[in-house]
Structures are given as C-alpha cells and as structure tokens.
Amino acid sequence: MKALVIAEKPSVGRDIAKVLHCNKKGNGILEGEKYIVTWGLGHLVTLADPQEYDKKLKEWNLEHLPMLPEKFELVVIKQTSKQYHVVKSQIHRKDVGQVIIATDAGREGELVARWILEKANNKKPVKRLWISSVTDKAIKEGFSKLKNGSEYENLYQAAVARAEADWIVGMNATRALTCKYNASLTCGRVQTPTLAMIAKREEEIKKFKPVTYYGIVGKVNGITLNWRDKKSKGNTIADKARAEEIINKLKGKEAVVIDIKSQVKKLFAPGLYDLTELQREANLRYDFSAKETLNIMQRLYENHKVLTYPRTDSRYLTTDIVSTLKERLDAISIGPYKKLAAPLSKKTIQANSSFVDNKKVTDHHAIIPTEQYVNLENMSTDERKIYDMVVRRFLAVLYPPYEYEEISIKVEVEKEEFVIKGKRTNTLGYKAVYETGNENENETLPVMVKDDVIKGIVFSLTEGKTKPPAPFNEASLLSAMENPIGFLEEKKKDLVKTLGETGGLGTVATRADIIEKLFHSFLMEKKGKDIFITSKGKQLLELVPEDLRKPELTAELEMKLGEIAKGKLAKQDLMNEMTDYTKEIVAQIKGSDSKFRHDNLTNKKCPNCGKNLLAVNGKNSKMLVCQDRECGYRETIARTSNARCPVCHKKMELIGKGEKQTFVCSCGHKEKLTSFQERRKKEGAGVSKKEIAKYMQKSKKEEQGAFNTPFADVFAKIDLKE
Predict the structure, then answer these.
(1) How many CB atoms lie within 10 A of CB 538?
(2) Which among 165, 382, 591, 708 could bridge 712 via Cys, Cβ 3.0 to 4.6 Å?
(3) DSSP-assigned letters across all residues of 616-642
(4) So where does Mg(2+) get bound (predicted)?
C-alpha cells in the first residue's frame, strides 16, 4: 500500500516528491514506489456562499438578514476544481492506505488539508508532517517522525471555528451595511479595528497642541556641555525667561569638573526576525509593502529554499535547531558573508536565551537561513535585499555583543549643572556584521580630572517644540496591529495578555492582505509614505456597530480559539456566542438612522450607467469608479511610476491613455511618454518596449485586483480569514 502526501502548493509538493523519489509524473501528482505526492493550490475547498443554503439569498436584501446556517457546507472552489478532483481521486485509490498532511504547519495549513479530506469523504488513517523549512534534510527528518493526525484535531476545530465565526459576522455585517446604504462597505473583526486605529491617530494629531521648550548648551573647543536641572534631572525648561536668566548669569564664567564616571557597557544584537519585524524593517529600509516582503520571502522559502518558513510569529529558535547552526553557517559562507561566517565556523557556537528558547516558539521558529547551498546570482535584486537582511541578523546573534565605554563628565558653572557625554568603542562585536566601520564616537573628548577648570565657554539658548504623533506608515501600522494594546478602551488583564500572546490584530500571515484590502476598498490612502483614512473610511466607522471597531473583539475570539485548540472549549459553544452577536449587530444596522454620503463625486458620467463617477485614490493610483456598486465601472487616470523626474528626481505620475500618456511630477515637470523614452535612450538607459509592456500589464493587473467584479470589495470572501 502507498501513502498519499498532500502539500499546500505545487512547488512544495515537488520538493517533497524529490526526497521521496516520486519521479513518475501524472495529472497533478508525482508518484513513486511507496508514496504519491499531490497538492492544493492554497485552498481547494471553502465555506459555501449564502445562495448555496437558500436561492433567495443570491439577492442582496436587508430583509433576508441575518443569514445563520444550521450546518455549514463546504464547496469546491471553481477556479481550482480540476486539482480538487485530482486529489480526491488519489484519496480513493485502492492502493492508498493512508494520507499524510504536508500543508503549512499552522492553523490555516491544517484547514487547507482537512477541508479537502472532509469534502472528499476520506476514511483512511491520517498522519501529519510538521516542518519549518523545505530543504531535503528537513523533509527527510520530518518524515522520520510523522505525527498522528488525531493530535491536531483540536487545532483543526479552532481553524473551523475561526472561519465559520468570520463568515457569519463578516458576511452579515457587510451585506447589512451595503444594502442599508447602497454603497460598497465591507467590515470585519480585523480590518475595521485597524481602520479605527488610523482614525484615532489622525484625531490625536488634529487635537495636538505643540508646547515650546528651551534648553541651554555650552560650546568650547568642539565639546558640548548640556544643562541639567539638579532636582528633576531633566534638560529642558518650559519658562523662557528663566532660561535667559540662567544664560545671563553664566556669561564669561568658568566650569569646574565635579565628577567623572566611566562605565563599560554591552549591547547585544537585535533578535532574529519574525515575519512582522522583517516586513516592518523592509518597509523602512526599502519602502517594500508588507505584501511585497511576504511575496519575496515566499520565493526565498519555496523556490530558492535558502530561508526557513516565513509566516512565523516567533523570534526565537528551539534547542533542537542549535545543532544545525554550523551547517547553516557553511551554506552562507559565500560572497559578502564568507569573512563574517568564517570566525564563527571555527569555534563552538554559544547558544543562549537571547535567541534560543523553546517556550517562546509556537508553530515555527524565527526566520533563519537553511542548510541549502546559496547561489546569489539566481536571485533578483529585491530577493538579495531581503536575503541579506535575514543572513546578517542571523550572523549578528551569533557574534559577541558590542562593547563600549560610556563617559559622563559632570561640571558646574555658578551652581548650575552641565553634563558632557562621550562614548568610545572597545569591541565592535555584532556591529562588524553590519559593516558600520569605526564606532569611536566623541573620541576627541579631552582627558579630564576632577577640579579641572574649563574656560572660554560660549553659552546659548536652544528652542524646540513638542511634536504630534507621526501618521501611520506601513511599518508603524504593522507595529500597531501586532501590539494594539494602546488602542484598547478597557485594558483588562486577560485581553491584554491574549493580544500579547496571539500577536494582536490579524496574524503574521494575514496582515499584509488586510492592509492591501483597506487600500483597494478605498478606506485608506497613501500620501507619500504616510497612510490616512478616507472620507469613506470615516463614514464606515460611524456606521458599523461599536464592537466591530474595537481590538477587544479579536482578543476575545482568539482567547476562545486558543481554548478550542487546547481542548478546553467546545467549538459549538463559541459558535452559539457568535450567532447571538451576529443577530445583535444586524439589528443595530437595520435600526440605524445614519446616512452615507459620497463626497468625492465628480462631474464625469459613467459610460455604462450614466451616473456620476467617484474620484478615489488607490494605493499607487488615482481612479474614477462608478458610484453604483452593481455597475462596477472603473478607470485609472493616473498611476505612480518608477520613472524619476529629471529635475527633482522624485517618482513621477503617468496620466492619460495611448499616445497621450504623460509623466507629471509634483515639481511641475511634464514629459510625454514618447519623449521620456527618447531621452532615456540618449542617456544610455532606454526603456524598452518590453519593459513598457510589462509595466502596463502590471498596472492593468493591479487595477483588476482592486475591482474584479461589482462585488469584489464586498464579496471576495469578505476577507473572512480575518
């Protein structure tokens, strides 16, 4: 008898098949003597749409709500039905004795496989492969210690509970809002609180009133003396008159050294990356969106096989990984990393609790290099950037700490206290990995002893103002989603603890999609790198029931999902609660007297239905879309390009169609696309027809991604994963 292995994606399936010597190609399968390997294309099976329960629900009608199926039905996803039937036929082969689940090792990965097995009515024994990388070595080790599928039954029940809860809440709330206000209004337990955080930040900025503060500095021979209040130890003064009075008192006076302290300090390397930390830093460093970083990581994991599983929320390794570190160092000992890895390979690796802790690893450990040989030439520029970030962070935790001497000299002038601070590097330690060069800051600090007198000091007044909190960008929004405790209205201990343990709003795997959806739904927009809520977003927050705006809902749901996964709570108990909650929010929306107003109407008419078009800002584009949700007409009128302005070097917008396409810059520069191409040719960096075609194809694809159908925003499974 053979074992059927079900992977989540074809690329992973091929990797497993290679290790299991399944070389015979079939229709959607790879077969060997002992194993048959097949795969999903992500989800092949999903929860049925409302009309599958009752045909009248195909029509969006407020009177049909709430929709509360007694038993949820599974349906095969049409686009991937061919592969589903391939998998089903393999499950029911007479020579297949057991099924091995080899989907991603996590809650959603469990759901992918189990739904396929349930829909296909599988009755055969199930085993589970649980691995964090898809190298040959990891796959071999994983197959040598397969688990019984029954060990993951509670995890599966938690995954089903999450999906069904989000279906009834998201589907009903979205239909209720859309029908009530005849506008494409989507909401969900993660995307709506995320939007509320952006609105709250904007309100804080709007209400902020700057406060002026003053400081006093002394300058002499390149040295800076900073005034410090003797009582509060603060270095600012709110009263300008007092600050000026002190300066007048100090003019022409000498300073006396009253104390010198020198302390050797150690600074340890930052922790290894989890996905959110990597997305955050890649956004700050390279302006990559969260989605772009995840896609790049997925390629480095699946295609190049040089990094471990990306969708992890842990920044630690387990003790069993320590023995593999030397092999991973050998794999990365190439190119720019060879000299950095060499000293580590020659000695015993010292693993410590700063990066190895079994208790801080759940499904997957931190993102680190695999033991796979690396060929940097096969990577794209963007892949190299992300790979470099992960490798250097991995090397850094294995290096000793950065050691420096912190020098603090306290001086007194007319009974006023000043401090001179300096720092001298003793050992670069992990900073050598980042090639920061010489860290000897303030090396010019003169040698001083107590009672030394400093003459010729020039004192001056400094002035500053308190600053409002910064608007969100993708990096800071990811941070807020990961840790939304500051946005809780009631900071109950159990909710705070759960949000901390579960990673906040969304998961490492879904946050990127949630951010993209909020852009594509025109609920938020970008101005430069900053993110702002739109008028549509503000109105949505006024229209949705209050609970759906709060992170508390997710915290409470995750607490209960965690209990289901541990076998401490029955799935049906949670579903009974979510059913009652859904009835409440639908009743609230139905009974509301609020109105929705399109305040971005233009004078341009829709060519399909004749109604006025709405002007909206996409993530990287400006569009005109029909106000009628059933019409679905859309038109891109401008898109941010990668072309740089020859005057100010900022990215230019591409507006117009066909031969009239023109690049426009915020500085006022304008240039037709044809002229741009000619100029670039003369500069020796011509834009080829192929590149232009590729760019335009990408633009079209992005546009279609934002508006796939009249109900895309509303219905594309309502982003029910969250």
Answers:
(1) 16
(2) 708
(3) EE-SSEEEEEES-TTT--EEEEEEEEE
(4) 8, 104
Mean pLDDT computed over every residue of the chain: 87
C-alpha angle with apex 278: 321 to 312, nearest 5 degrees?
A: 45
CA quadruple 121, 123, 129, 134: dihedral sign = negative
Q: What whole-number distance in Å separates Cα of residue 222 and Cα of residue 579?
A: 70
Q: Take residue 234 and report the two structure tokens written for it.
A: 């603060």
Q: Which residues share a beta bridge with 31? A: 24, 36
Q: Which helix (H) or strand (E) holds 699?
A: helix 689-706
Q: Does residue 498 carry a pLDDT above 80?
A: no
| Predicted pLDDT at 160 | 96
The span from the CA of 306 to the CA of 135, in Å, is: 8
The token pair at 293 is 């970083």
Domains of the chain: 2-145 (3.40.50.140), 182-206+471-572 (1.10.460.10), 212-267+402-465 (2.70.20.10), 275-398 (1.10.290.10), 601-719 (no CATH)
Q: Cis peptide leading into 69, omega within 30 of 0?
A: no
The total of other beta-carbon atoms located within 10 Å of residue 613's CB is 23
Q: Is 309 marked active-site? A: yes
Cα(216)–Cα(707) distance, integer angstroms: 57
| Cβ atoms of residues 431 and 411 within 8 Å | no
SS (H, E, C) 252-267: CCCEEEEEEEEEEEEE
The residues, any chain, with a CB within 8 Å of residue 561's CB and separated by 6 or more, are 158, 161, 162, 574
The tokens of 319 are what?
């003790």
Report how far residue 87's alpha carbon sits from residue 515's, in angstroms, rounded to the nearest whole number. 33
Binding site: which residues? 8, 104
Over residues 329-336, mean pLDDT: 93
Beta bridge partners of 226: 217, 419
Binding site for Mg(2+), residues? 8, 104
- Residue 7 phi, psi dihedral angles, 5° rounding: -95, 170
Please give the full DSSP string across 359-416, using - where no structure is assigned. GG-SSS--B-B-SS---GGGS-HHHHHHHHHHHHHHHHHHSPPEEEEEEEEEEEETTE
Tell me the one-letter amino acid at 557. Answer: L
**Does residue 295 contact residue 334 with C-beta atoms inside 8 Å?**
no
Contacts of the segment 237-241: beta carbons below 8 A, 24+ positions apart: 237/213, 238/211, 238/212, 238/213, 238/214, 239/214, 240/212, 240/214, 240/461
Q: What is the pLDDT of residues 136-174, one digit of tens each?
A: 888 999 999 999 999 999 999 999 999 999 999 999 999
Q: Which residue has the tokens 């997710």?
A: 554
pLDDT tens string 640-695 = 777 888 888 778 888 877 777 888 887 888 888 877 877 777 665 544 555 555 55
Identify the CA nearest to 509 among candidates 165, 188, 274, 171: 274
Of the candidates 308, 442, 317, 295, the one whose C-alpha atom is nearest the C-alpha of residue 371 is 308
Task: Given the residues 152, 309, 399, 404, select the one marked as catalytic.
Answer: 309
Cα–Cα distance measured from residue 649 to residue 653, given in angstroms and rounded to the nearest whole number: 12
Handedness of CA 648, 652, 655, 661 (dihedral sign): positive
Closest CA relative to residue 272, chosen from 400, 367, 360, 341: 367
Distance CA 702, CA 707 (A): 9
Nearest to 38 by CA among 147, 145, 122, 155: 122
Q: What angle do CA 167, 170, 172 make, to 5 degrees?
A: 90
| Closest-CA residue to 266 (of 437, 404, 440, 408) | 404
